[in-house]
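Sat 14:20. Reprocessing the chain from the morning session after the first attempt stalled halfway. Input below, unchanged.
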Amino acid sequence: MEKPVIIVSGLPRSGTSMMMNMLQAGGLPILTDNIRTADEDNPKGYYEFEQVKQIEQDPTWLEHAQGHVVKMISALLKHLPADYHYKIIFMRRKVEEVLASQRQMLIRRNEPTDTVADDKMADLYRRHLQQVEAWLAKQPNIDVLYVTYHQVVANPREHAEQINAFLGCILDVDAMAASVDQMLYRQRA
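Finished this time. Tokens:
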């Protein structure tokens, strides 16, 4: 029997790397190439897999992703081929916190922070999330668990148990909960 592809998704800076770290601590194999290494913005790593960005042109990597966890930004989910079963852990975070976190990352990289006004970007993000969630609800081959970043940080054990149940009770819940570092919740709205 084929195993589902487990995907951690959400907006950039929504807690997807924290969730990848939790799932790895819980015992799941992750799909990453370690090209993007840990830094001040993500001290535990980014857990990215470059081929994910090419999913629209080349989804062949999904065959080897079954039973693994891979991180994918929400904008790419619509390119998932229908011939696989997916379990998506979708990270939710207050848009104001996402924007603040992105701004801090740009400041640390000496990149411009004023290319799009925050209120306009917040509106774009909110509309995007509504569209993605509506699309996900219509996909018969996709199961979704929505997880809120600040709630995981506040009560990692409870959320580790929910995630474990969603994925079939195969995880080390204690290790998952212990992997959450509350000190990394730096941008609060």
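The helical segments are 16-25, 62-65, 95-108, 118-137, 149-154, 156-166, 173-178.
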